[in-house]
Specification:
773 residues; alpha/beta; Alpha-Beta Plaits; Rossmann fold; six-stranded parallel β-sheet; five-stranded mixed β-sheet; elongated
Length: 773
């Protein structure tokens, strides 16, 4: 397995950021050397190749083969990324051809060709491991694999094989294809920013900058930036596609601070910096090193602020840097700065640093004087695998001195406490040692089917049959999804059973409703019956066996329907079908109804007061969908209550510290919002606006939602807008590829577990401080 294959097709050899160098004009020392000298060419270019990826791949492979080049080329829907070896003359010819075809300013930023002489292969294993003993051309989706599903480019059409490509001409503008990344700064400016941070250290006002190295752990292990007063942040990831998850988990450390980013040649920073900026307004002060560390080392041959060696994905293994050795042997911990022996982790196969002494001693004792690529006779593990083993053991017990957290759980619209409990079964099972989840019902009962059938809907037995067919399709889809989840994760069986139970209940409800309609039609004098019923009629049908559905907030029409029944005492069977209430009922359910659910809060607030008073205290609140909108309001109110208590302690001047408008005693200390959105109730909107204007409500929050358009009910933009109402330094975000649900996959559970453990540690500290007082 080559390094780039293991790296999830991360940056190939490093490449630059739009320097616009002419072919053969980059790489400094290579200019004066003979064309027959061996060299290495690195470049990337973001271009719109969605219509012609196959044709471009064939063209560039033929060109490179004719020139006798080796190495790797990625031809993606969004551009090119290449690391090639050959004579300097052949490499210059290749660069000139690529520049001629893709160098138009209308197609995208200028391509920075990095050409350098090669001092030869570091070892035979290094050449084989980096695929520099052959030419490989891959057709892929992304230039670098960020792994964010809603950012993936989509192909437009297949190549027609004509050898021409309109999108490789001036018409192919890449600007609308990719999210905008950070501002590029030249190596000299980047160096000046690092130096200025040291000079500004200790000054009042501004926040210290952070430096995010977007490379992988095995790269930063042998070389990295070290600058005074600049906090280095190494994501310590195996592959680039793990970076978004790390950024989301560390938002609280990045919010509001100047962010500098670097990678080998710039291509990974293009995507990573765009992702940072997508996190919200608190993450816009971002710059990236133009041309990457490779251009920086050309500008500062002594290494500048960069210490150690620069890992490269070609036969050289590592280049540049000063004399300082920053790496350590995985076996004996002695200084080591190369991967000549290509040892790999016994578990995950990531490259391991092993010194000459340990390699020789191990293989001599094993009777193998030379290490084959990827060998690991000692069974060594990388830092990440060792850390995972430690965390797995720690996860089986709660924090020292900790107690189980009590979490109030608020279901979504048209759900119940029981259904929400069933849908989170697998998730809760993994967290049972850490938290107790308390589920409660919303006070508003909804009709079983809040949208009446239209005039063209089947009636009676036909409708019941159609309902059974719909149920069979839904059950089959659920079963297919369950089979996939079982293969991936056996522990999600509880969720599947809960969904199946709901499907069965809804089938029974549908059959009962259609039978009722059929009976009414049979009893009608003329054999017909209007199929539109008043909201009050639907509520009456629910009492005849329809499954219970609840809500925290209602549309004005739904709320009025409930009051109509309460005033009448019983439902009126003779409500004319043409009345306003009946007509409005048909439009209650649509894709935007959550934006109009601004009624019924008085009853929900009263119910929440009762729950908090009688079943509390609770440490935190978890809400899903509409429940998350309500949880956000509770979190902001309780954060205000906590602030007032700190300003006016009980018994002190200013009263008892109670917060006006609070929904209950005992402040919540954290909130988890899944597929949430901002409540449209004017009072809630004003509360959230005030919190956002003040920099965010000061309470730890975890936001879990589908990225982009993954959630078709509540968009990622709606959930992100809700997250912006909370303090970014205490805010954690998990964006997943699922729909309108709370995933129970390992990655999401791990983030939820880490958040709750953090809250538990804070609880231990708070209790210890209380005892000390």
């Amino acid at each position: 397995m080559s390094d780039t294959e293991h790296d999830g097709a991360a940056e190939i050899g490093g490449s630059g950021g739009g320097g616009g160098a002419a072919a053969g004009g980059a790489g400094g020392p290579a200019k004066a050397l003979s064309p027959a000298v061996e060299g290495v060419l690195l470049y990337y270019g973001y271009r719109d190749l969605r219509s012609c990826r196959g044709e471009v791949a064939a063209w560039i492979e033929a060109l490179s083969t004719q020139l006798g080049l080796v190495g790797r080329i990625r031809v993606a829907l969004d551009g090119l990324n290449a690391t090639l070896g050959g004579t300097l003359g052949a490499l210059r010819t290749h660069a000139a051809a690529v520049e001629a075809r893709f160098g138009s300013a209308k197609q995208g930023p200028a391509i920075d060709f990095k050409l350098a002489a090669s001092h030869g292969r570091a070892s035979a294993a290094a050449a084989a491991g980096s695929a520099f003993d052959r030419l490989t051309v891959q057709q892929v989706t992304e230039v670098v694999s960020l792994g964010v599903l809603d950012w993936l480019p989509q192909p437009r059409r297949e190549d027609d094989g004509s050898g021409t490509c309109s999108s490789c001409d001036v018409s192919g503008d890449v600007a609308g294809l990719l999210p905008a990344g950070a501002r590029h700064v030249e190596p000299a400016e980047f160096h000046a920013l690092l130096a200025a941070a040291a000079a500004d250290a200790g000054q009042p006002g501004g926040k210290a900058p952070v430096l995010i190295d977007a490379r992988n752990l095995y790269e930063t292990a042998i070389g990295r930036f070290k600058a005074p007063a600049v906090e280095p942040m190494d994501p310590r990831v195996r592959c680039f596609s793990d970076t978004p998850q790390w950024l989301e988990a560390n938002q609280h450390r990045l919010a509001g601070r100047p962010i500098l980013m670097c990678c080998t040649g710039g291509v990974r920073c293009e995507r990573a910096s765009a992702y940072v900026k997508s996190l919200g307004p608190s993450f816009q002060d971002v710059v990236q090193l133009k041309g990457g560390i490779q251009r920086y080392l050309e500008a500062f041959p002594d290494g500048g602020f960069f210490k150690g060696q620069l890992f490269v994905f070609d036969e050289r293994g590592a280049v540049g840097g000063g004399d300082e050795v920053v790496g350590r042997c995985a076996s004996c911990a002695t200084p080591c700065s190369h991967y000549l022996h290509r040892w790999r982790c016994a578990d995950c196969r990531m490259l391991l640093l092993v010194c000459d002494g340990c390699d020789g001693a191990t293989h001599s004792s094993a009777g193998k004087p030379v290490a084959p690529p990827g060998a690991n006779p000692a069974g060594l593990r990388c830092d990440l695998c060792q850390q995972r083993q430690v965390e797995a053991g720690a996860a089986t017990t709660t924090a020292s001195g900790g107690r189980r957290l009590r979490i109030l759980c608020l279901h979504g619209f048209r759900q119940t406490a029981r259904s929400f409990e069933g849908r989170t079964h697998a998730l809760r099972r993994r967290l049972k040692d850490l938290a107790e989840f308390v589920f409660v019902d919303a006070p508003h009962a909804l009709p079983a089917w809040s949208k009446a059938p239209g005039d063209d809907a089947p009636a009676g037995a036909e409708a019941a049959s159609a309902g059974r067919q719909a149920h069979d399709s839904m059950a089959a889809a659920a079963a297919a999804g369950a089979a996939e989840r079982q293969q991936e994760e056996q522990q999600q069986a509880g969720d599947v059973r809960a969904v199946a139970a709901e499907l069965d209940a809804e089938l029974a409800a549908l059959v009962a409703q259609q039978q009722l309609l059929a009976e009414e039609e049979a009893a009608s004098p003329d054999g017909t019956q209007q199929r539109q019923h008043s909201p009050c009629k639907q509520l009456q049908q629910q009492r005849r066996g329809m499954p219970r559905r609840c809500a925290w907030l209602l549309t004005p029409e739904q709320h009025a329907a409930q009051h109509e029944e309460q005033r009448a005492g019983t439902c009126q069977d003779d409500v004319p079908a043409g009345t306003a209430a009946a007509a409005a009922a048909a439009a209650w359910v649509d894709d935007t109804q959550f934006q109009r659910q601004a009624a019924g809060w008085a009853e929900s607030e009263q119910e929440l007061q009762r729950v908090l008073r009688e079943q509390g205290p609770f440490d935190g609140v978890l809400g899903f969908s509409q429940g998350a909108a309500v949880a956000a309001v509770l979190a902001v109110q309780h954060a205000r209550q906590q602030q007032q208590q700190e300003q006016h302690p009980p018994g002190g001047i200013g009263g008892n510290g109670a917060c006006e408008g609070s929904v209950g005693a005992g402040a919540l200390r954290f909130a988890i919002m899944c597929s949430g959105y901002r409540s449209p109730l004017p009072a809630h909107a004003a509360l959230l606006d005030a919190a956002a204007a003040a920099g965010g409500a000061p309470i730890p929050t975890l936001h879990i939602y589908g990225a982009g358009s993954a959630d078709r009910q509540i968009s990622g933009q709606e959930s992100a807008a809700l997250a912006e109402c909370f303090d970014p330094t205490q805010r954690f975000v998990v964006r997943h590829a699922g729909g309108h649900l709370i995933p129970s996959c390992k990655s999401v559970v791990a983030r939820l577990l880490a958040f709750l453990q953090r809250c538990q540690r804070e609880d231990v500290r708070a209790r210890a401080a209380g005892v000390a007082c």
